[in-house]
Structures are given as structure tokens and as C-alpha cells.
Amino acid sequence: MNKEEQIIEMLGKIMDEHSQTLEKHGTQLKEHGQILTALRADQEHVKAELDGMKISNAKEFGGLKEEVNTSVINQEILRNDTWANKVDIQRMNKGASSRLATYKLRLPGWEVVRCCPRKGRT
């Protein structure tokens, strides 16, 4: 029985070691579970923050796009007004030899009409 008792003691020690190992693994699994839970919560927080930044950037980009469109429209209006003024100046220069030259100077919100009599006449 001596050998059987030794084998039983050895098996008991092995079982104790395995129990301790299982307890350590159980503790580690609990710790890892807590870490994973914390990481998921942080990941969700970061994702929500990133989504908020995307929305904010989209709104800001939309505002900038509207400003650019407004600037382009204003530039086109200014170009058309400038062209109309140049045409009027050319007409005025060509029409100076007529009896009575009239021209209009167009500015946004202003209209000035000038009449110039022909030279030599009163």
C-alpha cells in the first residue's frame, strides 16, 4: 500500500497544483474581462466623439461651400457690371462727336446720367 499511497499523494499534489492554476487562470480571465469591458466603453466613447467631429466638419464644410458659392456669384455680378460699364464708356467715347452724347455710369445702387453738348454749339 505504500506505493498506492505515494501515487495517491502525488495525484493529490497534482490536483492541488491544477486547482491553483485554474484559480489563477480564473482570476486572469476576470481581469481580462474587466479590461475588455473598459476598452469597449472607451472605444464607444471615441467612436461617438469621432462621429460628432464628422458631423461638425460636414456642417463647417457646408458653410464654407455656401460662402464660396456666394463669392463666385458676387464676382460674376461684378464682372457683368464692369463689362456693362466698359461698354457704356466705349459708347460714350464713340458718341462724343454726335450732337448730344448721353451716357450712363452704372454702379450698384447708383445711376448717373450725363449729357454733353457737341463742341461749337451751345
Features:
122 residues, rod-shaped, 2 strands, alpha+beta
Topology:
Blueprint: H1 2-94, E1 100-107, E2 110-117
Antiparallel strand pairs: 1-2
How would you portray this structure in words?
- The protein is of the alpha+beta class and 122 residues long.
- 76% of the residues lie in helices and 13% in strands.
- A two-stranded antiparallel sheet has the order 1-2.
- Strand 1 (100-107) and strand 2 (110-117) form a beta hairpin.
Instruction: Pick out the low-confidence regions.
Output: 99-103
* Percentage of residues assigned to helices: over 70%
Q: What is the distance, rounded to the nearest whole angstrom, between the alpha carbons of the first and last residues?
A: 150 Å
What is the overall silhouette? rod-shaped
Strand content: 5-15%
Coarse structural class:
alpha+beta
Quick synopsis:
The chain has one helix at residues 2-94, and strands at residues 100-107, 110-117. The protein has 122 residues and is an alpha+beta fold.
